[in-house]
Amino acid sequence: MQSDESSESSALDVLDKQILHALVYDARIPFAKLGSLLDVSEQTIARRYRSLRQRGIMHVSGQVNAVPLGHARWVLRIRTAPDKALRLAESLARFSELSWVSLLSTGSEVTCVSRPRSIEQRDALLLHTLPKASQVLGVAAHEVMHRFVADEEWPRFTHLFTEQQLGELGQRSGGAFGAPPDSAGPDAPVDLSAEDEAMLVLLGRDGRAPYAQIAAEIGWTAPRVARRMAELEQAGVLYFDLDFAVERMGYTVRGALWLRVRPSDLDAVGRAMVTHPEIVFVAATTGSTNLFASFLCRDTPHLYRYITERLGALDGITDLEATPSLRVLKQAQTLLTSDRVAPIR
What we know:
The chain is of the alpha+beta class.
């Protein structure tokens, strides 16, 4: 049996990391099953999970993948005046359809990910709200054409498990950094009922909300909630995401990479980058750059080594711009306050 001793303010211990890894694979894994897998009590797993949430280290949320609903994902790069950049980022963080709102180190740019749920919502943001905002000087909208999926999601704690334990965890169903796996999806866009929408709102606040709680809120039975949740996951509409306070995990430099890659090498470069420990998201996009990636590094020398050694070894990259984030104001479903993640209510 493992000890339940952990410092409330220190870095994560082995059991904490194992819990996080299991949640990436199965965000709603029963604590009893996880305790049995890790040879600790269900109560120990529950206490550790509550501690991770209360310390603001991580948050589990249910997210809507707009692609099976018939809509694209976009990475937006927004230019503004330096003295207005922070205020713009704070305003964008309040938009429900925007995530990963960051103030870049250029001091006059804000990036975010847009997941519009309708054409009207997309056009309202890109054609009306942003162009009419006095702080906005220009917008570059990069549509995500293809997301490269890693065999192991960040924070990559697979090495802390035995082969048998990994087999019992099963196929990954969760994720991190707002990145649902791309798939063919259903033959036609999925229609969501009012009850579906209400359930998705609740899961956005707490991805581990009990079936009975959701049922009581939307007027269904718990078995019906479980069935519908499974259907939406199977259709690719619902996925579960983990937000992390990465600074508390030892990563002080994070940001974006904007790459130009020869078209014939685009797939190979994307597949290579997704295996790099520093990369948490990489996608082929439209726009003036055709590959976008998010990175996490321990410090600036680590970023330098990554660019010169790992990226420098890849054929096909013709241009690269690295833009560290001065501040990340919003992740998938949390706001960042100091070094803590705070769920959006």
